[in-house]
Design brief:
By secondary structure, the chain is of the alpha+beta class. The chain has one domain. Strands 1-4-5 form a three-stranded antiparallel sheet, with helices on one face.
Amino acid sequence: MYKLVLYVAMMAIWLSAHTLQIEEEMAMKALFQGKRAVNRAAHAAAQQVDKTALADGIARIDASAASDAAALYLQRNLQLDENGEPLARSFLRERVDILVFEVINDDREFPFFYRNEDYDFEAVLKQPGVVLIVRMAHPRRFSVMEPISWEIKGTAELVVG
C-alpha cells in the first residue's frame, strides 16, 4: 500500500515538474514572438520617409505615418485589434501596451545617444530612427509560474538609398 502512495506522490511531482517546463518553454516562445514583432514594427516605422523633406535632400521620418505603421505591424504580427487587445486566434490573452514610441529625426545631432532611464534602455542611432518599447504579458496556460510581463524594446534606423 505504501508503494502505491509513493508512486502517486512521485507521479504528482513529475507532472508538476513537466508542467513547469512546458510553461517555461511557452513563455520563451511568447517572448521571442513578441521581440520579433517589436523589431518588425520598429523597422516598418523607421521606413516611413517624409517625402517633402526628402525632396529637399533631408532624410526625415514622418512621425504620424511611423506611428501608424508600428501599430499596424504589432496588430498583424501579434494578432491584436486596434486597441491592443488580443483577437480570438491570438496566442496572447492580455492587452499589449505601447509604452514608448519615439521618432528621432534630423533635429538631433548624430550619432545620437538615446537613453530612457524609466525602462533602463540605451541605444546609439547613427541616423534618424525609431525607438519602441512595448509591454506584453505571458499567456499562462497552467498557472504553475507566477505571472510574467516583459517590456520589449526595439530600435530601427531610416535606410535611404
